Amino acid sequence: MRLEETLERITPVSEEWMMKAKERLDNLTKPRGSLGMLETLAARYVAITKEIPISMPEKEIFVFVGDHDVVTHGVSAYPQEVTTLMVKTFLAGRAAINVLSRCVGATVSVIDIGMKHDLKDEKGLIRRNVGRGARNIAHGPAMERDEAEKAIEVGIEMAERARERGARMIATGEMGIGNTTPSAAIFSSILGLNPEDVAGRGTGVDETGYRNKVETIGNALKRNNEILTDPVSVLAAVGGFEIAGICGLCLGGAAAGMAVVVDGYISGAGALLAMRLNQSVRDYLFFSHRSLEKGHKLFFEVEGLRPILDLDLRLGEGTGAAIAMQIMEDAFQLFNGMATFEEAGIEPGA
Amino acid sequence: MRLEETLERITPVSEEWMMKAKERLDNLTKPRGSLGMLETLAARYVAITKEIPISMPEKEIFVFVGDHDVVTHGVSAYPQEVTTLMVKTFLAGRAAINVLSRCVGATVSVIDIGMKHDLKDEKGLIRRNVGRGARNIAHGPAMERDEAEKAIEVGIEMAERARERGARMIATGEMGIGNTTPSAAIFSSILGLNPEDVAGRGTGVDETGYRNKVETIGNALKRNNEILTDPVSVLAAVGGFEIAGICGLCLGGAAAGMAVVVDGYISGAGALLAMRLNQSVRDYLFFSHRSLEKGHKLFFEVEGLRPILDLDLRLGEGTGAAIAMQIMEDAFQLFNGMATFEEAGIEPGA
Question: Is the pLDDT of residue B350 over 90?
């Protein structure tokens, strides 16, 4: 579905079902609110799906893959070829995200949305390449505006496909050497923060690499300054294809009435763009974890959001989202399975 | 096994196996350390069990149940009978801990270690009652010193029983109306902190109840001041039977070379006593979550410990521990299942 159409279809979640969920939670055999965040997760999921009891959802994790010419500035600890090698590891089922998705019972889908290298015959890869790597953002825009829209629409397509296959809970993930740099540029531009406050060490650059990174982000924002006018323009100017895919998955998920579990820092940049394109998107997003990447904490503070986990993860791929899905399912099982006060013969207390 | 004998059997975990685990972790297809806490959890588990690959452990959660005469001071939002009613709900498999233990595939064992009411014929209840409720700590000691030792030994017995049945990962849980009050008294006494800094709202007392609670804790510490000389004395003076059981489970688990997942605030008080009885116990403990209860945060800070989760839980029963067990198993699966750099044909980076 086209971007404009998708944005129009997104509505706030049901307050009526949110109330119904809270009512049930307050009748379960526990002090009111004592399951903390597990209660708010379950209630929001009910407000999205409008269903009590909760049906345990089919789950799909989308790993969007893209490259970044900005790596020539030495902003990453790994060479660009690692993107391709990691995609092969995903498809072989041997990466962290594969292991975790098996733990939680989710499908993993890997999408070439902006890889440099064309993995033509690779079995299992979803081929939706919009461009062969994002161009060097320090020298000009990462992509054209219509490419950005097209990449967002790939994300929307993935959400719709998941919905058709019966999924009610989807998650974002990514792979792309160098992609914390454009993510930091997006946080900086959208939130009005300094590059040094939002840029972190990524997968582990040294001090020189870090200084290059901050400088490169500053240059990218300066060089593209005139076109940083709206979320899609920011994405096209200083973003990347996989970030566009994540943005689209958030939008498509919200439009289709699904819960979207957002992974870490890079996914956060995509989700932020989606929230700026339509403010009701926020109701459908579940932020899985606070990554060790510096600007992530700031993002949550500025946006008034709270992630589910805080495990010092900084791997990406969707790893934090997979673990968070497990906790969400725990919350759903509690919602469905606990006895009510009446069933237990207890007077509700405080 | 007797307390003294158990304390003598506890040794520090294997540094050699810790190193072996770290070596493997650094060879997996991810930037070094990028799985954050998941890496440290797996490494410490290997240091405990001395086994690579990790065998997915049998798991057992122990819910120790006791009552507290201190409830007559209005320190809890619920009447004492709720302890009995909740035990029935546990045995019927309908409480939060039952739902979560099914999610994680753990057995739940419920132990009457200090219940007021004798549930004689209740099927499935493990009957090890040491005393019919802890006595009112504001007026004198909760129990005699030999009762405290006996209750600790019940916990040790449970750990040994679990080990014999093949468990390698056990968890603490509890139920007992009023038991945040003795827990706060233990934190205050052992850590040298003021009652108002460690006491929280428990399951939800109002302002008057909270003031009663702080005052009652102060009175308990004053009244028992002369006998607060060592961990077992503190337990006997201002603790409770279920807290003693938890302390024993930590000790027995460490002595038997098992990982012990510690639930929330009350379990934390039991674990703190165990750590003071033998400092190597710490190596075997995994603190599952930071509860909303005020003093819990302070306890972690003072002891330099970091909990796995922070979900605003304040229910007890072992609920946080059950969820943390899931995350630990995720860590073990990653440890076993991810490809190495060599297998993926990637040069290790930073």
Answer: no
Fold annotation for A3-54+335-344: 1.10.1610
Tell me the pLDDT tens digit for each residue of A147-163.
Answer: 999 999 999 999 999 99
Chain A residue closest to B312 (CA)? A36
Task: Give the class (CATH, top level) of A58-322.
Answer: alpha beta
A113 contacts A270 by C-beta, under 8 angstroms: no
Q: Are B288 and B320 in contact (CB under 8 A)?
A: yes
Mean pLDDT of B43-65: 98
Q: What is the mean pLDDT of chain A?
A: 96
Query: pTM (2 decimals)?
Result: 0.97
ipTM entry:
0.96
**What is the nearest CA distance from A279 to chain B, expressed in angstroms?**
25
Q: Is the bond into A53 cis (omega within 30 degrees of 0)?
A: yes
Return the percentage of chain A with pLDDT > 90, whole number: 91
Beta-carbon-side half-sphere exposure of residue B64 (alpha carbons within 13 Å): 35
Q: How many beta carbons lie within 10 A of that of residue A8, not counting itself?
A: 11
Delimit the CATH 3.40.50.10210 region(s) of chain B.
58-322
pLDDT tens-digit series, residues B2-20:
999 999 999 999 999 999 9
Report the alpha-carbon distance of residue A248 to residue B243 in Å, rounded: 51
CB B204 within 8 A of CB B312: no
What pLDDT score does B205 carry?
Answer: 85
Query: Using CA atoms, how far apart are residues B201 and A278, in angstroms rounded to an integer?
Result: 39
Element (H, E) at B105: none
Q: So what's the pLDDT on residue B94? A: 96
**Contact list, A293 vs chain B (CB under 8 Å):** none
User: Taken in order B26, B29, B33, B36, is the CA torsion positive or negative?
Assistant: negative
A340: helix, strand or coil:
strand
Give the separation between CA A174 and CA A108, rounded to whole angstroms. Answer: 11
Among this protein's residues, is B317 annotated catalytic? yes
**Do A77 and B313 make contact, defined as CB atoms within 8 angstroms?**
no
Nearest CA in chain A to B100: A330
Domain(s) labelled CATH 1.10.1610.10 in chain A stretch across 3-54+335-344
**Are residues B349 and A89, on separate chains, in Cβ contact within 8 Å?**
no
Catalytic, out of B8, B317, B329, B343: B317
Residue B204: what pLDDT?
79
B-chain CB neighbours of A292 within 8 Å are 36
Whether the CB-CB separation of A90 and A109 falls below 8 Å is answered with: no
Per residue in B151-176, pLDDT tens?
Answer: 999 999 999 999 999 999 999 999 99
